[in-house]
Amino acid sequence: MKLSARNQLPGKVKAIDVGVVTAEVVIALDGGGELTAVITKKSVENLGLTVGKKVYAVVKSTEVMVAID
């Protein structure tokens, strides 16, 4: 599958916390660090997500905010 999104970050599922409707999916990125995505419970099922599964975090946004302390 090809996507127009430039930010495709490879990693592996580190944890999945499934709620009634949504789930938090923690992805350990190949380059270091972690990213947490909130997706529907149905999407977790449809994608067959399990801990250790290879995935891509795809970031498509029209706006990115930058902050400093």
In words, what does this structure look like?
The structure is a single chain. The chain has 69 residues and is mainly β. It has one domain: Beta Barrel (OB fold (Dihydrolipoamide Acetyltransferase, E2P)). A four-stranded antiparallel sheet has the order 3-2-1-4. A hairpin with a 3-residue loop joins β1 and β2. The termini are far apart. It is found in: Cell membrane. Keywords: Molybdenum. It comes from Methanoculleus chikugoensis. This is Molybdenum-pterin-binding protein II.
Number of strands: 4
The SSE order reads: EEEHE
Largest sheet: 4 strands, antiparallel
Helical amount among residues, as a percent range? Answer: 10-25%
Report the structural category.
Answer: mainly beta
**Can you tell me the residue ranges where pLDDT is under 50 for at least 5 consecutive residues?**
none
Widest sheet: strand order? 3-2-1-4
Oligomer: single chain
Mean pLDDT figure: 93
What's the level 1 CATH class? Mainly Beta
Give the full name of the CATH homologous superfamily. RNA polymerase II/Efflux pump adaptor protein, barrel-sandwich hybrid domain
Distance between the termini: 39 Å
